[in-house]
Fold this protein.
Amino acid sequence: MPLYNVSAAQFQACQEFFNKNANLSTGMIGKQQLRGVLSKRGLDVSEEILTDIINSVSVDAQGINFQCFVDLVSSYKNLRDTKAEMNDAFRIFDVSGKGVLQRQDLKVVLGKLGNISDNDIEGLMDTIDADKNGLIDFEEFVAVFKKKH
């Protein structure tokens, strides 16, 4: 399931742009086409940077295929389905499956990322648990990601 939400019109615009700029024989936007697109926007990039751009988007060093292009364009914030992403992230943390996050849930998930102390867990709970009921509900979880730091 994709993590982005592209309307039919947005998909069509992606398709038109891609078809206008892709190499007809390979069906990809290669280095030459990418250089042309960037040049039209006033950017002069080296061969190394073109290679890095393609490698960051595509597993094929020849260029960027249409699916990779849509994945890239769709990663822009206004095209992402952030609610679905937040739901998925919350489910990952909800180890107990209770629909709320408990200290133990945080300890299990964050423990997989590295060493985390009980003091760290308490600090997170104090920061995230807005109503101080000892649990983190979905709204409290999302609020952390919406905070401007």
